[in-house]
Design goal:
The structure holds two protein chains of two kinds. Helices cover 27% and strands 16% of the residues of chain A. By secondary structure, chain A is α+β, with helices and mostly antiparallel strands. In chain A, helix 1 packs antiparallel against helix 2. By secondary structure, chain B is mainly alpha-helical. Chain B has five helices and three strands, in the order H-E-H-H-H-E-E-H. The relative contact order of chain B is 0.12. Classes of the chains: A alpha+beta, B mainly alpha. At the A-B interface, loops of A face helix 1, helix 2 and helix 3 of B.
């Protein structure tokens, strides 16, 4: 009892003397054990970033929030969005585009450490709502590997963006037929810092392809591929022959148009409101 | 249960198959739409009228954007094969429907075609056209006995109310 009282006064004396961090920490932990039964953690410093205003932050709405044009009840989509936001509050899913390099760690009972990590380029983002997926591609030991992850799967433990950038297309499936150097990503890559304000950098790379045959006829206008160097692999006659499948009336067909700009704004506001709660 | 024509189209596919293929379908619809803009009331088969109805309304929406809008001009020049109708679209039809937000067209069924095919016919018109109305308002005959008696009753009541007040 007397010893406890002595320790207490020693603790206060030492704090007054402003000792080094190690000693302070030792003292504080030992003192806490003695002073209180409950552990009170030190208060976290609150960082208020006054350099960037809220307005300048890049507003990004993930594409799986935009409901497709269907005959289903909009109630289904609003309930799904609520569930998506609930999941996002637990797991931080950053903004990323096709062509950005991501590292995903997923829970796996058979892997050592119970989680496996995969790094790759995002080549496709599909699905709407809770079933939204993204495909990451990488070449490991000269073998091309593509893994399709579901964004809202409970097995996913973390999604980190190592390099944020956009490409010229929304679908990089042609990387399967491109030279392997364009799909290789170093698994131990360090994350490239990017700012949350301003434009996303667009990588205007034009990819070189392997000799034909390809898995799909990427030269045809229906794929609308901008990011391939066709002049190296196809003759101008072949390019003209591919234009036979052009369908020029498609851009004037008003039935195919789906203008989502107003819907997207509305959804973005709703999303930001819900996330800030 | 939706009993409209759209319900018959399978599995959410909104566009019907017409003609020889998608290009032929668009060309056919273009011709019908040009005829509609020129004459403002046309009769075709029901399926074609239903397809054109959507495009006609969307064309008016584009025309409302104005002459100077590049996309609107491209759409108008694509869809109207007779180019003298492009000014008519922008200067006559667009101002006419300025107050309406949607529903610029009216479709009504007609008796089947007299040919061997007995096809279902429909008439499609832009509202506000100069022709007599499709559903004529039938006025009761004032000179029948009952109507004359009712008229007399109405006038007596009006007189009584006027003397009371």
């Amino acid at each position: 009892m007397a010893a406890k009282g002595l320790d207490k006064c020693f603790f206060s004396l030492r704090l007054l003397r402003n000792l080094q961090l190690r000693n302070e920490r030792l003292v504080s932990t030992s003192a806490c054990r003695l002073v209180d039964d409950k552990f009170i953690p030190p208060s976290k410093p609150v960082i208020i970033d006054k350099t960037q205003s809220v307005a300048s932050l890049r507003r990004f709405l993930s594409p799986e929030f935009v409901p497709p044009r269907q005959r289903t009840n909009p109630l289904k989509f609003s309930i799904e969005r609520k569930d998506m936001i609930r999941r996002r509050k637990v797991l931080n899913i950053p903004e990323f585009y096709i062509g950005s390099i991501l590292a995903v760690s997923m829970a796996d009972p058979h892997a050592s450490g119970k989680a496996n990590r995969f790094v790759g380029i995002c080549i496709q983002r599909g699905g709407k709502g809770l079933g939204a997926t993204f495909v990451l591609r990488n070449i490991i030991n000269n073998q091309g590997v593509e893994i399709c992850y579901e964004l809202y799967s409970p097995r996913i433990q973390s999604v980190e963006v190592l390099k944020l950038e956009k490409r010229l297309d929304d679908n990089l499936m042609y990387l399967r037929d491109a030279l392997p150097e364009y799909s290789t990503v170093d698994p131990d890559m360090k994350p490239v810092p990017f700012s949350p304000t301003g434009e996303v950098p667009v990588n205007n790379i034009k990819v070189r392809m392997r000799p034909k045959p390809w898995s799909k006829r990427w030269e045809r206008p229906k794929f609308n591929v901008q990011g391939i160097r066709f002049d190296l692999c196809l003759t101008p006659e072949k390019m003209e022959h591919a234009q036979k499948w052009a369908e020029p009336w498609r851009e004037y067909d008003m039935l195919k148009e789906y203008d989502t700009s107003k819907l997207e704004e509305h959804l973005l506001d709703e999303f930001q409101q819900e996330m800030s709660k | 249960m939706r009993l409209t024509l759209r319900a018959l189209i399978s599995h959410g596919r909104v566009a019907r198959k017409m003609g020889l293929g998608p290009e032929s379908r668009i060309n056919m619809l273009r011709n019908i739409l040009t005829g509609l803009v020129r004459h403002e009331r046309i009769e075709t088969t029901t399926a074609r009228a239903d397809e054109v109805r959507f495009y006609a309304e969307k064309l008016v929406d584009y025309a409302k954007r104005g002459d100077t809008d590049e996309k609107a001009m491209k759409m108008a020049s694509f869809w109207l094969t007779e180019k003298d109708l492009v000014p008519k679209l922008f200067n006559v039809l667009a101002p006419r429907f300025e107050t309406h937000s949607k529903g610029y067209t009216r479709m009504a069924r007609l008796p089947n075609r007299e040919n061997l095919d007995r096809a279902k016919m429909a008439v499609l018109e832009y509202k506000g056209n100069p022709f007599p109305p499709l559903y004529p308002v039938k006025k009761d005959n004032e000179l029948t006995l009952i109507n004359q008696l009712l008229r007399g009753y109405r006038e007596d009541r009006a007189q009584q109310l006027a003397t009371k007040a």
